[in-house]
């Protein structure tokens, strides 16, 4: 049985917007890759249901969201769109329980909460405009890069990473008023630039990828929405002297292996998480054979990892040993340009 990936891209060069790739895990081959929506800079996308997607995009002179529904013939139709910020958001996620869309806007330093109706209409409910900066040259102001829930708990919290202010802010959303209340703030080492956060599925642990320091912070997660750092690991080899930054972070379903990508060193790093989930040990660094692997993801079986490249015209495919977690490069010629989001459909 085949699987599908949705691929978000920049449209600065040859990309035609959003792509859909049909993958056969038995053969390890892609059977079909098609452009499904001619959007401008659809750089991040989330799945709402079996037939509905929401993508960030440029909408006129604003940034915003586009709702797309799959049609009977496999094509996608734009159901609605809403421009509400000065720049295209860099991240979107969906809170299935409450029906909220959560977006992060890097350039404007804004975290936004939107509603999505059953017929696909969007409404802006509230937003938090961040303030501040950091010591790194890329921290001239707030740069919100991630906003999502912990999918493994029922906590009424949203976690927002601000790369520009070195903060991971925990918000509570009031269900009636949609007011945003700051519950807790975690600060990594100054200049780290927190980018993405991922949670352990069975233990109160989170892993924070920091872009500017190319590190991962291992965090204990507390019921009050706060975090406590227990370990920091480096994503780069000790002898690496070039420029590089952290990009994407993924955890397998067993919680045994953590994966993170480097842009500049152009690699994926694999860690064993240890029996307690708190003791990361680097077990492999493998090059993606392409420039700027901004995002990557597992297929449904987790026997493969697909990596996109922001500054290439192709993707790279790896096989994954289910026991050791180690990767082997299979192909680096899968034709999708400027790819910055890899979303496996479930």
From TrEMBL:
Q: Which InterPro entries match?
A: Cycloisomerase_2, Haem_d1_sf, Lactonase_7-beta_prop, WD40/YVTN_repeat-like_dom_sf
One Gene Ontology molecular-function label = 6-phosphogluconolactonase activity
Q: Which GO terms describe its cellular component?
A: cytosol
Transmembrane segment boundaries: none
Task: Indicate the family of this protein.
Answer: Belongs to the cycloisomerase 2 family.
**The protein's name in its UniProt record:** Lactonase family protein
Q: Which organism is it from?
A: Bavariicoccus seileri
